[in-house]
Amino acid sequence: MKEREEALSRHTALELKSVRNATSPGLVAQRLHLIVVFVLAVGRTAVAAPCQFEAQGEGRVAAVVDARSIRLDDGREVRLAGIEPTASTRQALTSLLVGRDVALRSADDTPDRYGRQGALVFIAESDTSVQAMLLAQGDALVSAEIADKACAAALMSFEAEARRQKKGNWADPSAIKNAESPDDILAGIGRFMVVEGKVLSVRQAGATTYLNFGRNWTHGFAVTISKRALPAFEGAGMPLKSLENRRVRVRGWVEGTAGPRIDVRLLGQVELLGASEPIGVRP
After folding, report:
1. CB 23 within 8 A of CB 31
2. Structural domains in the chain?
3. Which residue, 53, 200, 209, 283, is the most exposed by fewest CB within 10 angstroms?
4. 148 or 5, which is more confident
């Protein structure tokens, strides 16, 4: 099975190379079709089982509302759970989904404050999510919101492979920010970012723990973690103090004024570099 998957991967990589710089709608559609074929071929064993949540309805996609949500022909709006968009997400969704029959799966169908139903989206009878397809081509980022460990790890693996091959968003060297360049991070305030660097110190102030990546605590990049999140890290075998002097990858929304901050609320937002899996999604 492994040899078959590797062969499929090599074949698909060669096919994608010929349309990598496609700009016309026809070539974009061709590119996405190849992605679907590849992911469906290998995804049945790689990610199908982990992300099969409870069925939450079906429908036909009438429109892509924005880079993170779609509208079905019955009027329902669906937010694609588990991912954050990149510059190419909306175009990819439009080529992939408009006019297609889809099935929705999630652990909870409670709508968000905008009335959108959060779900993993599956094309027709496919057992591989659209989210996995987007991640596989570097057209989205893992948001770390999926609580199910096996599904979260599967989605992260698709992103990791796209990152390794520098596909889509990951072809841009600035896609991952350097924690030692806080001004670059601060320029993206209000955006979802991925940042890498070495944790120089771990300090607690009141109910908040700070992972400091710079020696100047006021202006350097830092991660904040509330006291209520500490048991989850400790339960995963990762007490925050153990991250001191370790290189990590952090993802989340950038905020702050003097110095950039990312507030970490979920284990999957922090990944040890060199480790095989992000914190909190280990088997």
Report:
1. no
2. 2-170 (2.40.50.90), 173-272 (2.40.50.140)
3. 283
4. 148
